[in-house]
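Final report, results section. Input specification for complex C-07:
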Amino acid sequence: MSQHDPATTPAQLRHRAETHASAYPALLAEAEHLAATVLLGDHGRRRAGIGDEFWQYRPAEHGDGLRDIDWRRSARSDTHFVRQKEWQAAQSVMLWVDDAQSMAFSGGTDRPTKGHRARVLALALCVLLNKGGERFGLANRGTPPRRGEGQLGRVAGHLMAAASDADYGTVNARVLPAGSRAIFLSDFLGDIDAATLALTQAADRGVKGALVQILDPDEEAFPYDGRTVFQSMSGAVEFETLKAKSLRDAYLDRLAERKFQLAQLCRRTGWQFTTHHTDTAATRAMVWLYQMLEGA
Amino acid sequence: MGALAFTTPLLLLALLALPILWWLLRAVPPAPIRRRFPGVALLLGLKDDESQTDTTPWWLLLLRMLAVAAFITGFAGPVLNPNDEVPGDGPLLIVMDASWASARDWPARISRVETALREAGRDGRTAAVVPLTDLPPEGLTFQSADVVLRSLPGLQPAPWVAGPEALEWTSALPDGFETLWISDGLETAEKADLATAFETRGALRIVESGRAVFGLLPATFEDGAINLTALRASGDSDRAVTIAAVGPDPNGNEQTLAEVEAIFAGTETTASARLSLPTELRNRLRRFEIVSQRSAGAVSLTDDALKRREIGLISASEGQEAQDLLSPLHYLRKALSPTADIVETGLLDMILASPDAIILADVATFSEAEAEALQVWVEKGGFLVRFAGPRMAAANLSSNDPLMPVRLRAGGRSVGGAMSWGEPKTLRGFLQDTPFFGLDVPEDVTVTSQVVAQPDPDLAARTVASLADGTPLVTRSDLGEGQVILFHVTANAEWSSLPLSGLFVQMLERLAISTRPAEISAEELSGTTWVLEDAMDGFGQVRRSDTSAGVAGEVIAAKDLGRDLPPGLYAGGDRRLALNVLVTGDTIAPMVWPAGTVVEGIVTAQETPLMGLLLMLALGLLAVDVIASLWVGGRLTGPRTTTAAIVMLALMLPQNATAQSDADSRALAATSEVVLAYVRTGDAQQDRLSEQGLAGLGVSLFRRTSVEPAEPIMVDLETDELSFYPLIYWPVVATQPTPSSDAYAKLNRYLRTGGMILFDTRDAHLGGFGSGTPEGRKLQQLARPLDIPALEPIPDDHVMTRAFYLLQDFPGRHAGRDVWVEAAPADAEQVDGLPFRDLNDGVTPVLIGGNDWASAWARDARGNPLYPVGRGFGGERQRELSIRFGVNLVMHVLTGNYKSDQVHVPALLDRLGN
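Structure output:
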């Protein structure tokens, strides 16, 4: 049963809904689990500001209001102290997860598809952002950035929704709110011009962020030989070779060039770029993303 | 590489089709694989560099061609070394030298003869086999080849070389036969003439083995060391041989006492070595042999010549200050020291050292303990020589003393001195039947004083030598296995001039006190009779011989070895004489045949069909082709790689590679629970039966006793550790291989350290114990190297009869009577009031029977008996008894003599007092 068939009976609709619903907590649980590995206790802005958490006591200065003085602390010494809270500023982070057919590829049974890894990463990041009090949204469906468990559920639902029929996905940068952060998760094997366009548009709107290129190890290694007909995931594109091995170097050159283009693009627009492989632990990409958001 | 032939050569024409196949295979490229791959976007527009990959690569083609070619050649039936000798005509005479020099590769010679006889049989020729060392007395008769073939196993090499009688024998031969001469390669005087004699009667072919022939000359004793000389027939390079000195160890088991290496340098044909041994070891030597040369020529027996006897000297006046020449022992020392080792210490200590002889010079009285010890020693074969003297003359020895051959008159007598009448007495010539017969009596030996024997009735019989007036000079009597000899004069020159003469040494030597320095001369041998004690066969094996008739000394002196005088150790009286194949001065040389004689090697190539080999090769190539095709097609990825690798490994790895890896797990399995084991016989059916039997016994044990054995384990004697198993069941199968010497070492260690083997010949003792049936013979062969104690049929009071159940019969599938266990000690006695003897400790190391117990024990998975035992109720009873026997057996193995100890309980309770 294809996911793109329209549901014809309520029973089918219910069945499919339950299928999705059953997968969704698993995805969320996996994402929470991944997020837990990153929550090392150092969230917060690490500077004084408006927030709920205690940050530090500092000696009162001229200009501090009486209301600000912490009398309990000041009573224990001769000087007056002001109690400061940690700055907790909410940010908007928009995620775009490639849901095209090419993301459904996995080179081996021992590793997930690229799409799964992208979804897990995205949702885990959302969990983290939620805990950090940031707002987040999914650019695929134009979900506006919000915070809270409800938003987490919505994002998860959207991530689990049916994939697109296209072989390669394109970013829709118009929905990004100005000044927000953005993270694009894709294999970026499709048309580079679309990615360039989206990125420059986003940069124009003052959006900063990162590109995460998720690749299967087979796409990096090209371990094929012999007479082979390569097909894209939807079967729309075909390419036949008589000796796959001899194409390896050319393919790898092209892949390296693609990565270089993406890195160049990021450098121009002030974005960040990384490549993540599905055979490595998701944590690595997670930490990278988290530090990127923290550091910026 | 020998010749190659085909059974169906026409099939080879199919090889012509190979080029067509090549072309066909080349034209068909491998089919493409379809593969989903997102990166295809990056591939678009790329071009293939090489375009020829749409055809099969050349090496894969070659592989397939080879496979097909191997198939075709294989089915054509190639045969390596086809036997297609040109058949001769007329009768075939096979002459074998059959001397000691052919013993070493005797099986090869016999198989060569077999080949020749089979060939003759195929060609319908008659044949005869004649060993030159054992000529048929009734002349030559040709028989049909298969009749002759049957007599082959009886042929053995003789431990001598054919003499001139062979030449006489050939002179009577008829004309017109072909001769095949299996030669030993050694030169003898007659061989050239023999060859001519055969050639005049028909074609002559000679077969010779190229192996070097070695010989060992008798050992000589010189300057405190043993000189050994090894010979070889020919050689052009350095070669070292090891010479082993063999003799009994302190337990009486024959073994190598010492080894020495002799080196043939360059083309030398002799090599010598010196071996220095302690007297104790040297006296135990029985023979020398060149290690790993199975031939009588490479063995040299030793006799008295090598033995240096240990002689204890004791004199009563020792310790007194006296001049050397007056010492009673001085002349004895001088006479004995060149040929014997002398021990001088206290009498009791000396007896402990067990010398060959003890000489007492003028010792008249002993303490009671000394007398008793001395008497026991003599009775066990000791040789006691006593010399008279003033003390003995003074002592009262007129009563019967077992340590004196005769009773003595008190005081003795003096003749020819200043205070006495008469002349000093001379010696009378030695009578026949005395040990001194034949020795010359010097005129100047005189006796002035002596002790005098009481005139008893048996005095004459005990007198060995006497003076001119008839009074005894030397008397002798037997005591137990030993002898007591009394010289009625002193051992110094005080009473007589005997010790000053050469006769003294000769007399001592005749009394076998002193040993002969070199060989016994022909004169000494004349008139004596010798009996063959240890006979040596052509392979150099020495066996006890009790049945030979006596041989006259003259025959021995001639040293003409043959049927009438086989080599070996001859005994005459208490002297031993070794007759060896080679005597000092012998040499051996390779036979140089007259020009034009056909000489062949001994090994004929075996006919080897190669069909199976080639077909296997073809199949192997095809298997490789499968994997190679996958690889070329790029399909050898993921799990397929693993599968292919496993298949390849499984094809290539030898089968026993698993043995080492699971040795640990076996050890764990065998030691974490009680495990019964059975020996792998190589007969799959018997192995399964053993397993079922032990499993069935295990179930019975589990139900009835507190022994809860795990599944039985099969042990391979060659590879597995045995010490984990309390009991090993060894069914004897006639076809099973004999274990290697390492395995035997392991088995002996197992038996010595408390293991137990249950031998089961499964033949119901049809032919009596260990004889008639093939299994019985196999059992003898298997058990020969094992360290098995003396056996007896299970006595009624053996602990096996009550270890768990009370049993008197031990049936299996057969109800044979005799089951053999380690014999009870000879001194086991039944104590009154106790039902059992107090038998040996520990567990019998072997239990031998033929009742096929495993069959009676065997049960299937549902617990039903697998094999029928007897008939009806009686049969079931027999099965029950066999299971009870199994239970008792395991109980005995696990608890030892525990049930023997139980018999003490009533006695103990009684003694402790109600």
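Chain B is about 30% helix and 20% strand. Residues 872-895 of chain B form the longest helix (24 residues). This concludes the modelling results for the funded period.
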